[in-house]
């Protein structure tokens, strides 16, 4: 679910046939805050604090904005977005769900009010965004009926924001994601392909271009667009661009735990181990120090990467230390079937066999077989390890 934002939850129901609402536009009679430069300046610090995980200062700024513009969905949405970014590093953590949903519901209520009084573009923008974020969370929580319902509403209001180049890059964000994922999803989830008849055609390349436009030119949705563009480009095999975006986001918001973790993964993927080692050690230090957002999932990655680095440097003692930590993080997350957990167990078995601790080695290889599927490479490697162990014991 992590890669799917607006569109997947929309495909969970086939009952919605979209109409084009362009004829329903009426001139906005309410101040347009999205395009107001003074409001953007007032929001700048709060948004930067939020993405840099200084939530205390971010929320203080957003609450001040709410006092000034309580009649507009913008400050309520930003307060909800602040809760969302608390969730992002560990998507299974439900601690912030209630506050997040409450702020998004308020944003929807206020957005409906301005929408019904003529602000169809800004009202539609926030209605689409808030419903989409709610749908994403419900999908993560496997509450499919609620996810589909929110998705329908998101698409309904997205239509009011489409094809409005005069309104700047902000309103392109939802359309860009729709254009890309409405093609990507049926390509990768064949079971959903027949449902495409209920939705307008998308265009992956157009979606990527629109997202780049938002990433370059938008204010409120710029970082969100860069975040999605980074993941899309990586998925499309354009690792150089994904690496550039990841590096930029991490340097711009160095305390953002998710951006840090993604940057570390990109360094590993690109084989830049001279940069990877200090970043992993920094992540581990932040986890141990209780930094906001630095949680076991980040530790699972960083400790496994460090285990590999130290093993390559022939330092089995340090390699073992970090493989053990990776296993501990995996157990804490109940992620024993994940690749890094299985590979850490296997490497621990290999080190123990090398040190002639045959009983320990056997126990690690057996754990791999316990959690890995029979047809997987991990299962086969564990069997090979057990076979080599028998030969070593005979010698």
Features:
395 residues, mainly alpha, Serine Threonine Protein Phosphatase 5, Tetratricopeptide repeat, elongated
Assign the CATH topology of the largest domain.
Answer: Serine Threonine Protein Phosphatase 5, Tetratricopeptide repeat
Portion of residues within helices: 55-70%
Summarize model confidence as the mean pLDDT.
88
Rg, Å, rounded: 24 Å
Order of helices and strands: HHHHHHHHHHHHHHHHHH
How many domains in all? 2
Structural class by SSE content:
mainly alpha
Low-pLDDT residue intervals, each spanning 5 or more residues: 1-28
Q: What is the distance, rounded to the nearest whole angstrom, between the alpha carbons of the first and last residues?
A: 49 Å
In total, the number of strands is 0
What is the CATH first-level class name of the largest domain? Mainly Alpha
Largest sheet: none
Shape: elongated
- What percentage of the residues does DSSP assign to strands (E)? under 5%
The CATH architecture designation of the largest domain is Alpha Horseshoe
Tally of helical segments: 18
């Amino acid at each position: 679910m992590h890669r799917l934002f607006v569109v997947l939850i929309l495909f969970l129901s086939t009952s919605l046939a979209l109409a084009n609402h362009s004829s329903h536009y009426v001139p906005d009679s309410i101040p347009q805050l999205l395009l107001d430069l003074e409001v953007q300046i007032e929001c700048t610090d709060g948004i930067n604090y939020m993405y840099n995980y200084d939530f205390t200062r971010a929320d203080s700024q957003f609450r001040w904005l709410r006092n000034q513009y309580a009649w507009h969905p913008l400050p309520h949405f930003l307060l909800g977005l602040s809760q969302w970014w608390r969730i992002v590093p560990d998507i299974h953590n439900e601690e912030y769900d209630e506050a997040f949903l409450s702020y998004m519901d308020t944003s929807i209520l206020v957005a409906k009010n301005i929408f019904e009084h003529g602000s169809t573009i800004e009202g539609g923008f926030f209605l689409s965004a808030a419903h989409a974020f709610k749908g994403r969370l419900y999908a993560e929580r496997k509450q499919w009926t609620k996810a589909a319902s929110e998705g329908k509403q998101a698409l309904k209001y997205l239509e009011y924001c489409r094809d409005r180049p005069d309104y700047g890059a902000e309103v392109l964000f939802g359309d860009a994601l729709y254009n890309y994922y409405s093609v990507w999803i049926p390509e990768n989830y064949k079971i959903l392909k027949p449902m495409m008849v209920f939705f307008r055609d998308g265009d992956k390349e157009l979606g990527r271009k629109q997202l780049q436009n938002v990433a370059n030119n938008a204010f409120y949705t710029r970082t969100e667009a860069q975040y999605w563009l980074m993941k899309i480009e990586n998925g499309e095999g354009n690792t150089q661009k994904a690496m550039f975006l990841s590096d930029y986001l991490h340097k711009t918001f160095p305390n953002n735990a998710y951006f840090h973790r993604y940057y570390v993964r990109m360094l590993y993927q690109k084989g830049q181990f001279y940069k990877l080692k200090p970043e992993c050690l920094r992540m581990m230090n932040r986890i141990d120090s209780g930094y906001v957002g630095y949680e076991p999932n980040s530790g699972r990655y960083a400790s496994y990467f460090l285990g590999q680095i130290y093993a390559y440097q022939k330092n089995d003692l340090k390699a073992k230390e970090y493989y053990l930590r990776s296993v501990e993080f995996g157990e804490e997350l109940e992620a024993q079937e994940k690749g890094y957990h299985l590979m850490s167990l296997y490497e621990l078995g290999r080190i123990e066999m090398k040190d002639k601790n045959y009983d320990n080695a056997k126990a690690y290889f057996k754990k791999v077989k316990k959690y890995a599927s029979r047809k997987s490479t991990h299962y086969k490697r564990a069997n090979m390890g057990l076979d080599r162990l028998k030969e070593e014991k005979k010698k």
